[in-house]
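To the team - iron/sulfur cluster complex, inputs and output below.
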Amino acid sequence: MKQFWEDGLRFSCQQCGRCCCGEPGIVYFSPEEFDRLVAFLGKTRQLGREKIIAEYMKPWRDSYTARDDFEDGHCVFYDHGCTVYDVRPSQCRDFPFWRCQLKNEKAWQDAAKSCPGMNRGRLWSADEICAIAANSRI
Ligand code: SF4
Ligand code: SF4
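Output:
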């Protein structure tokens, strides 16, 4: 089936932080991603696993989601940018090439209304998009 993105899609993050704030949601860290986060925060903030769980995480499915139970709904790791950027979970890495946003052009354009980086900047090829979407959990 012909995909609306077969000639590629443009996206360059504008670092506005909108996708890390606002509506509460799930920022899922798989068990492997959580291990990487623990190693990172152990090194950068000298925090142990139990402290990280207590301060930053909520249980979710087989692992954890980042806390966002703040008045403005921001992710606990957001502070003028992602403070755990190198170990952010695949959900954040894959955005905006989530399967649910690639299923048709309307879904893509709807998402673009709240992400100023979509439809501008770097042209991502269909092969690149396919590779990201294949691993996307969303
Ligand atoms: S909403 Fe889009 S442009 Fe803004 S930080 Fe998120 S990905 Fe980048
Ligand atoms: S982990 Fe980082 S990139 Fe992902 S929502 Fe939180 S602050 Fe944003």
